[in-house]
Amino acid sequence: MTRANFPRWLLVPAVLGALLVAVPIGAMALTVDWANFGALITSEASRAALWLSLRTAAASTVFCLLLGIPLALVLARTSGTAATLLRSLVLLPLVLPPVVGGIALLQAFGRRGILGHTLDVLGLEIAFSTTAVVIAQTFVAMPFLVLSLEGALRAAGTRYEDVAATLGAGPTTVFTRVTLPLALPGLVSGTILAFARCLGEFGATITFAGSLQGTTRTLPLEIYLQREGDPRAAVALSLVLVAVAVLVIGFTRARPGSLSAGTS
Amino acid sequence: MSLEVDVAVPERDVEVAFTVETGETLALLGPNGAGKSTVLAAIAGLIARSGTVRLDDMTLADESTGTHLRPHERGIALLAQEARLFPHLTAGDNVAFGPRAHGQSRRDAHTTAVRWLEEVGMTAYADRRPHELSGGQQQRVAIARALATEPRVLLVDEPLSALDVESAPEIRDLLRRVLATRTTVLVTHEVLDAALLADRVAVIDAGRIVDLGDTARVLGRPRSDFGARFAGLNLVRGVAVGEALRMPDGRLLHGLAEVPLTDGSPAAAVVAPSAVSVHLDHPHGSPRNSLAATVVDLEPHAHLVRVRTDVLSADITAAAVAELGLARGNPVVLSVKATEVHLHPA
Known about the structure:
CATH superfamily of the largest domain in chain B: P-loop containing nucleotide triphosphate hydrolases
Number of domains of chain A: 1
Order of helices and strands of chain A: HHHHHHHHHHHHHH
Distance between the termini of chain A: 23 Å
CATH architecture of chain A: Orthogonal Bundle
Oligomer: heterodimer
Strand order of the largest sheet of chain B: 7-8-9-3-10-11
Number of strands of chain B: 22
Structural class of chain B: alpha+beta
Helix content of chain B: 25-40%
Distance between the termini of chain B: 31 Å
CATH class of the largest domain in chain B: Alpha Beta
Largest interface: A-B, 19 and 24 residues
Helix content of chain A: over 70%
CATH class of chain A: Mainly Alpha
Shape of chain B: elongated
Mean pLDDT of chain A: 89
Low-confidence stretches of chain A: 257-264
Mean pLDDT of chain B: 89
């Protein structure tokens, strides 16, 4: 760490802020039942929850990419009132309590939701299924990808796209061979952030998808449940998620400027 | 076969119309910020502007019919001030980008790229990324990239202004070679670029073409004050009287008319500052023009000093300035031979 110029007294709240994060994490690592750690995190319920979490988070991240990349491009390349409104709408899940997101999803796709009947006719029942988990995760995580990628697209500008067009490249070629590669750092950090958010999703999932072992009970839900039955298992599983989070941060930090590239 | 342009850029108050014949290079000469680049963007189709752009029998843009071909459908390549090489591709892949976009196979595009990199002397750098190249090298690759698409028209926007003084002449030579047979619109504020690269020059002042003609004529016998300033020449307007020009103050400037002038018709005289000499008194003997004037300004000009007066500017040595003891506001007498005064209709 290099010495910077700032008022010395700022160090006090800064250290307190760091401790607020460090003490609970440290406490968890100190109090976990290391002797039975392996057994605790490999119980059948735990393994089912972890496997479900990984599968749904991966699927949700793919949907975030499929829907979020076009959204980010539209937002980055348009201006005006409509674009501002669209941006606010897309970013809404970012500031919304996840449980409210879950309620909203139920009102749309639940059995009594406005689309419920239509889905029923089509033979689709979404609420309280693994599909619902994926929808909930995509709902809350997509803004992370959109925000990060839109920033990268804006920063890259249209100068290279213009050149590519005058070289005879059609819009699709320009998009795949110039636009996306130039925004890759923002895309990668956005994808990692979205994946992490999917993995940690709790509120919208439990509201919209419920908590059925092996079907909708992801790792955060399992942890919440174990807190009542077997607190030692809850702590051990929490530590697993901490490890995943540390890995995710490591991934983003390993790419210089990737986190900041999204928002600068 | 020709490129016909008639476009207006209202937000910059630019309205220009010109035709470029096949194989010809037309320079749009004007100051920075005059909207010249916007005209190029309109020709390339990057922005929609009112007016028409036609290439041979094809209408690229026509406001009245709502036609607006997209940039990739026009076959017009744009060479910008900065090279704008794709940073994620090697020099070779940058050049191969256009041929690939035009449907060439990977191998054919590679062959095309190799050929054009050789043409611009960059074969050894094919595998380098743009950030590993100097500004001049990047511009060479950009030229190869633009030409590799075999564009029907090449638009060149101040290609040398972002380069250092060492690499600019090399790139100018390269452009001179590759533009020779290509239909090109060149935008520049450098009179040297126009002189060396263009067949014809259009001088743009305040958003309008004020002079348009063969390069030698526009730069040697400018018809606009603006063009004369660009070419570094004196332009005096007045009325033709025999083999002389009656200036607004009533005095006569004797010269040679290149085409017969009608007495009483508006005319202009072009005089090179190097042909004007400065004295403190009326000189004895031959020069037919000797005019009393007042020094307005003195400024360095190459190795000489440009003496601006209320009549003509003169280029004289610093030693002469010292000997004459010139300062702003001094009365002087300017003399210039009639054979150095070129008269033409205005």
